[in-house]
Structure to design on (482 residues):
């Protein structure tokens, strides 16, 4: 299969907008809204949208399976406790709640017309290992805070359409290497074979659910799919996880699209042996081979132009755009038997590969696989490349995005007075539940500034006032469009 690195023009154009935006210099002061003067204003609901939301983020950030760092994986004990906490907050916001058979926690209010198409708002309750407290949780908590304000103002019952908040059970894919177990089930794109995927200890998705008293079969997994006719759209608020908003000096921005991603598992098998007795020339060492494969990956992803060729359909722009967005990571590696005086018998590592351009990503995987097999052959080791996960790039709905942009603008205007610049629009290199839900309905996202662009780290931080801005933006969106 020869795949060309051609791009879809739409994505390329957006990428260039993104790059141009990233190069803009920061506004002199930026929109830092920390000013005691507005704290007392009751039209800004600071007690709920900021103080209580921040308190809840901190509380949820303590719900962990590990001592000393944050970790919640699919249906782990801490994930179940987190789900219960969120469920209580959903009820506090006036929502009817339930947990579905993939462990997603739902809270819904019907408004005046229970049969109208519903707005879904969501994000994930799972985390990476040694996580920050905002990734995922911010989207759930800011939505619940905004709905709580509507409840207090007596507006919940007067909504024109149902609103449903969903805390998805798995977006990070840490435990099963298959991201979006929760949102993909709701979108109807989770294959039934996903129930048989096992974690490192050999426990399957189905068994984990059963351990938690959730009976899941292939048939009732398919029933989790929402009817597209029953849904109006999906909105997700998420920490940016990158530096653009901070550089531009904006608390919130609107998301134009999300990069596509692939996860691979590479297994290299060689000849296990004694570290002291096997001459170097006689070794089939999978560790040295894995090192060469990883360096190849880095070179290819840093300089795709040196590796990919034209097939007559492509142009400079497609390769240029691929070079600008392509990122590749080996985040996990394990060896067997993992002892200092043993030449390993087997090395396994993960590859996470992302790009705005789906064709370009395919081209990279094709070239990478070819060259990896060549290296393994030269080194006389065997090499298996398993494709664990794929999600194509997603373009956010333009109308929904412009509604979110106006809502963000009005929130910031309320908080900061005059806003001179347009709310920034940016691309997401990180994956989000919105990718899975885009198979069900139109999606729109708001990003919230984070300190230093840091995420997937305990250093992840969002200013209290930026949490407030996010809640106020969602509130403005709900008040105007629902
Ligand atoms: C999720 O955070 C991802 O982008 O991997
Ligand atoms: Mn994440
Ligand atoms: Mn996330």
């Amino acid at each position: 299969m020869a795949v060309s690195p051609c791009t879809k023009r739409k994505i390329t154009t957006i990428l260039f907008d993104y790059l141009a935006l990233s190069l803009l210099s920061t506004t002199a002061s930026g929109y830092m809204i920390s000013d005691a003067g507005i704290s007392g204003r009751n039209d800004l609901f600071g007690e709920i949208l900021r103080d209580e939301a921040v308190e809840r983020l901190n509380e949820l950030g303590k719900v962990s399976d590990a001592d000393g760092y944050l970790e919640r994986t699919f249906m782990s004990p801490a994930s179940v406790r987190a789900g219960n906490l969120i469920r209580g907050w959903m009820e506090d916001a006036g929502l009817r709640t339930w947990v579905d058979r993939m462990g997603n926690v739902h809270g819904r209010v019907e408004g005046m017309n229970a049969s109208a198409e519903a707005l879904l708002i969501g994000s994930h309750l799972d985390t990476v290992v040694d996580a920050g407290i905002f990734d995922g949780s911010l989207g759930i908590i800011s939505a619940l805070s905004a709905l709580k304000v509507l409840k207090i103002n007596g507006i919940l019952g007067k909504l024109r359409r149902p609103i449903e908040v969903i805390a998805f059970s798995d977006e990070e894919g840490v435990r099963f290497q298959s991201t979006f177990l929760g949102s993909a089930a709701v979108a109807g794109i989770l294959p039934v074979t996903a129930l048989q995927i096992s974690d490192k200890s050999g426990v399957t998705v189905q068994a984990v659910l059963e351990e938690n008293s959730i009976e899941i079969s292939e048939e009732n997994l398919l029933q989790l799919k929402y009817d597209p006719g029953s849904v109006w759209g999906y909105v997700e608020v998420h920490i940016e996880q990158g530096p653009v908003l901070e550089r531009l000096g904006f608390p919130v921005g609107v998301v134009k699209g999300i990069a596509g991603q692939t996860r691979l598992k590479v297994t290299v098998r060689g000849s296990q042996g004694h570290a002291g007795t096997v001459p170097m020339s006689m070794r089939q060492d999978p560790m040295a081979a894995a090192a060469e494969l990883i360096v190849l990956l880095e070179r290819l992803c840093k300089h795709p132009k040196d590796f990919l060729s034209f097939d007559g359909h492509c142009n400079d722009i497609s390769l240029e755009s691929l070079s600008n967005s392509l990122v590749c990571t080996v985040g996990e590696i394990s060896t067997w038997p993992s002892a200092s005086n043993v030449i390993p018998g087997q090395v396994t590592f993960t590859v996470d590969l992302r790009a705005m351009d789906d064709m370009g990503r395919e081209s990279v995987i094709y070239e990478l696989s070819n060259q990896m097999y060549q290296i393994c052959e030269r080194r006389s080791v065997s090499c298996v490349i398993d494709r664990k996960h794929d999600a194509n790039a997603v373009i956010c709905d333009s109308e929904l995005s412009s509604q979110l942009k106006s809502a963000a603008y009005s929130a910031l205007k309320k908080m900061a007075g005059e806003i001179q610049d347009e709310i920034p629009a940016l691309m997401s290199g990180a994956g989000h539940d919105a990718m899975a839900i885009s198979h069900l309905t139109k999606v729109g996202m708001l990003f919230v500034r984070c300190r230093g662009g840091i995420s997937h780290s305990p250093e992840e931080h969002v200013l209290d006032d930026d949490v407030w801005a996010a809640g106020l933006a969602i509130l403005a969106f709900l008040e105007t469009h629902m």
Notes: Confidence is low (pLDDT under 50) at residues 1-29. Residues 124, 135-136, 171, 238, 432 surround manganese (II) ion (ligand 3) (CB under 6 Å). The first strand starts at residue 96 and ends at 99.
